[in-house]
Write the structure tokens for this entry.
Amino acid sequence: MNQQAYELYRRSSIGATLIDSLDELVRLGRIEPQLAMKILQKFDQIVTDVLADKVKARLSFKGHLDTYRFCDEVWTFLIKDVTFKLENQNPITAEKIKIVSCNSKRPGEA
């Protein structure tokens, strides 16, 4: 299992909901803040591992690259007028999207 998983998925709807629930439990004194942090770290590890191991769907997309940047080993792309094509499904369009891409291994990992 990845020792230091990225925290990207905390900003997903399920991650944000988990954070809200943990904040509430800490506020009510039901759990310690240290336990909440351990739960979030485990969430980061498990989501990263499950997406890498279990998701097999393919997706392609086309759009107009508006902005890109590379900082601290993380690529960020802002794309406009995007069309997504999923296997055996109708295309889906979006006005703009943001893609954040991280190396699957942290610097220094084997």
The chain is about 35% helix and 35% strand. Residues 13 and 58 are 22 Å apart (CA to CA). The first helix runs from residue 13 to 27. The radius of gyration is 17 Å.
